[in-house]
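Sample entry as discussed:
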Amino acid sequence: MTEFGKKFRQAREAKGISLDDVSNVTKISARMLQAIEEDHFDQLPGGVFNKGFIRAYAKHLGLNPEEAINDYLLALRQAQVDAREVWNP
């Protein structure tokens, strides 16, 4: 887990709320929220949906939504670079 997902998990746990609680408010499935927290971006639907999920989740947790989107894009790029290095050592 990178700092990206960890930041969301820590903010959620600090508020004492479960993934199901967040899901009920944001209407984002708990499975998608868990994928965000675990940096499993390949489990998200992709495109603008991912940014919408990140924005809504960040806003619900009191995090800066635009900063969260930028952090997501950086983490996504790093995950893609890491995956490429595995396939092309």
